[in-house]
Known about the structure:
By secondary structure, the chain is mostly helical. It has two domains: 1-48; 113-461, no CATH class. Helices cover 76% and strands 2% of the residues. The protein has 19 helices and two strands. The two termini are 39 Å apart.
Amino acid sequence: MLSVLKDFKFLFLLELLLIIAFIASDYTAPLIIFGAIVFILSLKFLYEHPVYILYLLLFSILAGSIGEVKIGGKIPQILFVDIFFPFIFLVLILRTLFDSDRKKNWHLFSTLLLIFLVWGLLSFLVAVDKLRTLLIWKSYFYGLIFFLFTYRFTRSLSDIKTTIRMLILFGVVLSLIEFSIIIELGGLTRGIVGLFFKKNLLATSWGKSNYLATFYVLLIPLTIGYFLFVKSLNEKILVAISVIIMFSAIVFTLSRGGMLALAVAIVFLLARVLKPKTFLPILFTIIFVVLILLLNPLTYVLIDRIATFEQSFSYYTRLNFYKDVWQMFLDNPIIGVGIGNLGYHAKFIILDHASAHNIVLGLLGETGIPGALVFISLLISVFVYFIKSYRRENIDSNKILLWSFLSSIVGVYVHSLMEPNFEGFQFSIVFWTSVGLMVRFTEISKISNSETPSYNEQSVKT
């Protein structure tokens, strides 16, 4: 760290001298020099502290897209995260090649993801829309890279806590973006009325309401667990406010699947976390959340939508599309019809880029039995890994945090049976970042537990 500061002082002095030399003749030159030096310093700092690249990329997701480009008649989006991604990939490769201080850089999850990606490349052989195949395949590829990056460069409990805070802040900022969209629809009252008639008015440049809900299914249980994990009262207050904000935001999405999945996750969470010493904090948080839900007029709309789901248009369209996808699987049980290409083979009238809205059925139709088995095995392995980690853990606060993340996983898996969340580019990044983070947490916790003598050992030493 001291060497970094020394470099900063030297470069700052050089920059100051150059600016003084050019300031009399032209203002453009010093600005270019200043920008270049700041850029170089930023690259140097990020290379030496790569965990900050992760934060930069997470929040670049919220920046959305910067436009679209036509390629062969198609119009893919250019996202901010795509601009920064080559840097994270380059840092990962270079640090892996030249760092000798870490021997273990790989994980079973990485292997399964890599096998799935290799099998998914066969989609190019059968896909009708090869560009769409590439775009969806890229989501899984980014997931692998972000998992590896987080797993490798999250090196301490401090890094883990900071990254969890960044994920919580991500959820809060996403909520604020939702609120701003509602205000732009004509203010809070008119915006809510607009959502009452058409929920998909709530959309960013990279996702609509149902897709936005899946982030809260992942982040809310983890945030509740972090609320119980931290000791600082001030931080607890901020985290509790974050939970309330995110609960409000998921209601505004009017996502039936999201609310049902979150309800399952919360029940799963409370089954283990609700104890005498955690009862009051959870009770107060629940009271605030219930008040928010009762005061929000869209809550009643959402309840009605859930109660009458079997009468909705989406219910009938999904049932008909499920039949088509199942037939695609029967016709192509080994390779499938190609990632992202289900809509091109459907008899039922639907968009070409439609998804199955069910992770198991979608994988069978797109990648056949081998691809589905690998990815479903990966999801099961993630769940089993954290169950075992929870059972091994001895510290109560760590157990709570692990169980809260298990609840997030349960919620995400339930939601994946109704929405194509794992196909989503942005969600793939956030989900696999979270998995990599919590895997590192279990390993750091295991090391600290092994280094801490047990009660009997301490008594013997005494």
